[in-house]
Amino acid sequence: MSDLAKSMSSATIFLHSKGDPIGSPIGTAFIVAYPLPEKPGKYFPLIVTAKHVVGDATEVVGRFSRKSGPIGTVSYDLDQLRKDGDLWEHPDDGVDLLVFRSPHFEEVDYLPLAITNIASKETFTKEEIAPTDRVVFPCLLVNFMGTTRNYPIIRDGSIALIPDEPVPLEYNVGKRHIVTSQQIVMIDATSIPGASGCPIFLWPGPRAKGGVYSLNGVKSWLLGVMHGFYQLPRETREVRIPIQAGVSTVFDENTQIAIMFPSWRLLEILNSDKMKERINALAANIT
Q1: Every domain of the chain and the residues it spans
Q2: Residue 163 DSSP symbol
Q3: Quick one: which of 269, 166, 197 has its CA closest to 11?
Q4: Which segments in the chain show pLDDT lower than 50?
Q5: Domain 3-115 falls in which CATH fold?
Q6: CA separation for the pair 262, 92 (Å, rounded)
Q7: What class does CATH assign to 116-265?
Q8: Distance of CA 23 to the CA centre of its chain
């Protein structure tokens, strides 16, 4: 496995519904290291996913790889996390992002993503991130997750469009139907069940910038979080034109374009006063 694939996979976990002993897979998440103020080298692990992955659930299960031994699972009481101030959403209800705090688990094999690897809006401009740039993303494949450890599949695509104007979206978060217009990035890639909530990175290989082609590659910035596939407009979907694909009949509802909520929307959560206040209060009790 390449260093890039290993580092991406090491930050990625799978989320399941609550079941016995573990429920059905519901999506992908990844771990960000939130540094403790004035405590170098120490951090709180934060789990990031898409809000619709969790939906109305009051409890979800995180599926982790262990340093040794079988898969480890952790149950997260989302209601309690909300009460404690350890679960955060974007103030704009249409932003499909969810962040919650996790304890450290010494036996878990993971490498969290540094906040300094999350691209800001200014990073997009400075690095000239634009359509045709290649992206890669580790995500859950429900057909095969692994029995002794998590095995995220590594998929790729390219940026198709970064529109300047908000894009109309409709999606469900549990029983709530969200109708919104959002700043998103469109990816030339097909989102699959289980990919929602996965991190999407800039491919760190050779790349043109400022009219100069560099063979040395670039930093593998986190560019955003997978929302899902971009549906055709409702009126078009209602026509449901069948397309023959081998022996199966599929319907032309998926545009083959994936939607990514850009990384700067995640930074708006991580840099919020509410999160800073909670982290500072927790850090004050740590020696």
Answers
A1: 3-115, 116-265
A2: -
A3: 197
A4: 236-252
A5: Thrombin, subunit H (2.40.10)
A6: 14
A7: mainly beta
A8: 20
